[in-house]
Design goal:
The chain is mostly beta strands. It contains no helices and nine strands. It starts with 6 loop residues before the first strand and ends with a strand.
Length: about 110
């Protein structure tokens, strides 16, 4: 159940965010990828960002935590080799803010 009061979803740009206040996925590269990609998130409050990985049909396949410092989280993400090629959604959450980005695993 979402508790956000404001949202912006534009899947033509592959991003959906709620209550941003400067919180956003600045980079997910490369996209498409082979299961390993660079992720950069800006506007982080505190020292952590929670992440959830979903399949295109909404099945939750992974939950993880990313470290952050100085308002930014920069991490290399390695998906399980067991996950099939296809479209995925990566949700990142910090305080009461969320951003979801769509990407493709080849």
């Amino acid at each position: 159940r979402r508790r956000h009061t404001r949202s912006l979803c534009d899947w033509s740009s592959d991003v959906c965010s709620s209550d941003l206040e400067g919180f956003s996925v600045n980079l997910l590269y490369p996209n498409p990828n082979h299961g390993t990609f660079e992720l950069e998130i800006q506007g982080v409050i505190g020292d952590r960002v929670d992440g959830k990985l979903f399949t295109a049909d909404g099945k939750l396949v992974s939950i993880f935590t990313l470290g952050a410092a100085n308002g930014m989280a920069k991490n290399t993400i390695e998906m399980s080799s067991k996950l099939a090629a296809g479209k995925y959604f990566l949700g990142v959450y910090n305080e009461n803010r969320a951003s979801v980005i769509q990407f493709v695993k080849e």
